[in-house]
Amino acid sequence: MAESQKRIVIIGGSYGGLSTAHYLLKHVVPQLPEKESYQVVLVSAADQVLCRPACPRALISDDLLPQDKLFVSIPKLFDQYPKGSFSFLNGTATELEHTSRTVSVRLAAGGGSSTEKIDYYALVIATGASTPSPLLSLNRDIEFLRTKWAQFRKALPTVKSIIIAGGGPAGVETAGELGEYLNGRAGRFASKLANPRVAITVVTAGSDILPALRPAIAKKAEHYLAQVGVTVIKQARVKAVTPEGAGTDDVSAKATVTLEDGKTLEADLYIPATGMTPNTGFIADKSLLVADGRVDTNASTLRVDKAGPRVYAIGDVASTARPAVHLIFPAIPVLGANIKRDLLLAAGKEDKSVGKDRGFKEDTRETQMVPIGKGRGVGAAAGFQLPSFMVWLIKGRDYWLWTTGNLWSGKQWAKES
Length: 417
Ligand SMILES: Cc1cc2nc3c(=O)[nH]c(=O)nc-3n(C[C@H](O)[C@H](O)[C@H](O)COP(=O)(O)OP(=O)(O)OC[C@H]3O[C@@H](n4cnc5c(N)ncnc54)[C@H](O)[C@@H]3O)c2cc1C
Fold this sequence. Notes:
Layout lengths: L5 E6 L3 H14 L9 E7 L3 E3 L4 H4 L8 H4 E3 L12 E12 L4 E6 L7 E5 L2 E4 L3 E2 L11 H14 L5 E5 L3 H15 L15 E5 L11 H12 L3 E4 L4 E5 L12 E5 L4 E4 L1 E4 L4 E2 L32 E3 L11 H4 L2 H16 L4 H4 L13 E5 L3 E6 L2 E2 L2 H9 L4 H9 L8
Parallel strand pairs: 1-2, 1-8, 2-5, 8-18, 10-11, 10-16, 11-12
Antiparallel strand pairs: 3-4, 5-6, 6-7, 9-17, 13-14, 14-15, 19-20, 20-21
The structure holds flavin-adenine dinucleotide.
């Protein structure tokens, strides 16, 4: 990193962060006066990007999805840009000091023993959110995820029962994948699988699974789950799990799950798939966060207004929208345009020559696709129910891996939009 350059630091190398980096390098930095004086610095805890929605299938076995598409090395994706315009820092942001405009990063190299403090001219926070189960996301780095998958897989052949807490898409998809893999699927006209080898139970607090979809679609999902040996317990909340750490620290532990009504369930494996925790631990000033821990982000401009000039947030970490990839995509050009505007103004351009802010608006229509094993699925897009075949075609076939080639390489952002 050249000391004299103005750094546009992006923290988080996934859907939000990688897309922003490509967009800035293609459409923003080249249009700035003295463009060589800027450098996009991408900081990420992992040096590879993961197709995260694929975790419910990928966690079972490396044979189920092509590994070279599931994990992709980040630095190589940016070789296409002029030398000096981009730099990758493999490390974890540990402290943001927004008044002095610096971020401290614990470097992955050397086993995390050294820290670098970098100052930023502009900052994009794209650190996403962690899942309670370490099997379902890149909560740390790739090695950590692979270690957890290995522990879980080792236990699988002998299990007789699995409890999954959470009736959202992550819980339902994981139940469907495990059900089909371990039990197989009942015939098309059977209402449920008789005598499944492994009893898989989804426990949900809601009156139905998949609360983002209408009840009729949720019922269809329940039917598909029953066909792979999955039972759903509704209106039941998990109150406690013993031993402590089962399903989180120890993904292969047997667990006793106590529900709110006092009932207890025993399981050979327990997977918590309830809610997510925003990755904002490095933001010491809690006034920059909203009550649920996400970054307090202007829902229209994507600026973090309280953090000083040229600070933005995007993706699951931002308070802007629901956590979903399809809501990040339309936000990227808005973010790019507003960063460009701010940088041009800071470079001395006049207000009238740089145009107005662009505004983001969350699309709140019913949109969610939930594969249930390899051959079935439920969902809706823009308010229209999708047939099982369409869910398979779009998502269930390979859990979006067909989309990530263009996304990670930046081709998706070839045009300024
Ligand atoms: C099981 C599952 C299935 C899903 N399926 C779908 C789906 O089908 N469709 C859909 O639209 N959405 C889906 N989602 C949601 C989707 O995955 C998220 O919306 C998306 O991953 C958010 O991207 P992001 O870039 O904001 O953050 P993330 O993908 O969470 O990535 C954040 C990145 O930041 C890094 N990071 C975190 N903290 C730090 C730090 N302090 N310093 C440096 N780096 C850090 C992380 O390692 C990670 O690489 C699914 C989510 C899960 C868990």
